Amino acid sequence: MAHICRCKVGDLAVVVSATVSQNIGQIVEVLGQQQAGTLRLEGLGHIWHVRTVSGRSSLHYLYQSGKIVAAAEGPAPDFTLVPVTGLPDVDGIAAKRKCAKVRSRPAPAAPAQLESVASDMEQRA
Description:
The chain has 125 residues and is mainly beta.
């Protein structure tokens, strides 16, 4: 049975659980599947490759040696993320997504309403 994912590629998500407490509350963009590299997480369910929305190196990773390293992007287990959609999931559509069928795709464009709000905020500043 495939693991049911909370997130999908292109989602913005809040980190709600982490070994390093500084990560809790971070807003990240889900970029795709975990990538090969020096830091790989195993045995924690589905692992996403994420990037901080700010672009700053504010994700903290604790290595087995005890060293903590900050990075702008890296791996994050799906169960530690909650997507920020702004829309209620009335039909439980998100719960029906299966990680086994995850495919990389570009992030969705921002809705026109958000662009309008951002424009209004810029004019007021």
